Amino acid sequence: MKQKTLFLCSDCGYESPKWYGKCPSCGAWNTLSEYKAQPETRARSVLPSEGRTRIRPVRMDEIQTSGEIRFGSGIGELDRVLGGGAVRGSFVLVGGEPGIGKSTLLLQMCQEMCRTAKVLYVSGEESLRQIRLRAQRLQVSSQDLYVLAETDMEQILAETDALAPDVLIVDSIQTAYRRELPSAPGGPTQIKECAMLLMQYAKRRGVTIFLVGHVNKEGTLAGPKILEHMVDCVLYFEGEQTGPFRCLRAAKNRYGSTNEIGVFEMSDHGLLEVQNPSAAMLAGHPAGAAGNCIACAMEGTRPLLAEVQALVAKSVFGTPRRTAAGVDYNRMVLLLAILEKRAGLFLAGSDAYVNVVGGMRLDEPAIDLPMVLALVSSFRDKPLPEGVMSFGEVGLTGELRAVSCAAQRISEAYRLGFHTCIMPDQPADGIPPGMHVVRVKTIAQAIAAVL
Ligand code: TYD
Ligand code: MG
To answer: Whose CA is nearest to atom 1 of ligand 1?
Structure first.
């Protein structure tokens, strides 16, 4: 059978029979590379032979759904993101930049999982000795944890078949390869073919598979993006490598919500769960400094307090500079325009920078108002009064719009010692008695209330 040559975008997985400099689907440059599609018969041959029995359609209500088995990882933050543990037979992709802590997280997970399941950890990146040393440092010790240092896909599946584990961890997809493919490990062809094999294996044998995939900011490593459609869950592990906090997010989850996040801190003994992320985010918050405002965003079902900082300075160039870290750049530029037009602030001649402390990314409209207050506070060089926090969405006419879960946000702020809340004019039940709530209708009113 003739091999078909395709071109595959390493960013979005777009396939084309022709090469382009710019991906027609996602617009990224230089991401298309050659992909040799395998003829069907060869692609199947590696799975340990299995008589193909006839599979008939079944009536929907006759499908058994009870008895869904989940393996708890013993790490509350990870289980929460997975939707209550890893489902038997599911295929989970753990993506993140190299060095962010993916191997550490998965090795730590083994400790608890081994109690209820047989686990095989396959590493193509570290030797057995290195894994053992790391496990010792992480205080992971289990007699039921099996380790294999192997990169050949056929060997990995053969050994997995022999051991018959409940959970298989493959670290990483970039090092796995199939011998009969001509391309080098880490290329789109190898990655796609290896992941396809693993997916079939997970479904047929009911083995839960965790697959590690490295990503980098430039997207030059092929990987997680082209696998997203194949797997049941995609977890991204992110954070600033220089800072201690790491955040685990579900980008896709067939067995739970994608709203939940898990917060971790990297320590000398591995990853620690951050039980109280709001307190951690606010550590080191400068008292009485101009240009910051505490916001409360909802991350899934949890309120999270974070410090939004702004710096507004006179621009030395004709075109003012604007940068945003942790918030959406376009949203920030929009708020600057609203401030100019609706609150009469002359910002066209000023550079403006916004940053969320702690390396968290807040994409919720509720952080509009804190961002506005931080910008005005910096512009006027006047700090907000102590103990003030805020949330609220800002509309184009400068009006404040209601946001969800107001009471929960207020309670979280109160728990962490805030006593005044600037918020949109909306009802909220169960406000703690000590909390002073200032309801405002426009950004001008909000500014007048605190600055
Ligand atoms: P690792 O899990 O190897 O990253 P990945 O698998 O995503 O590439 O994490 C490596 C980083 O974590 C490394 O820079 C060192 C740091 N680290 C600690 O700070 N403490 C620890 O206990 C461990 C195991 C790693
Ligand atoms: Mg690793």
So the answer is: 101
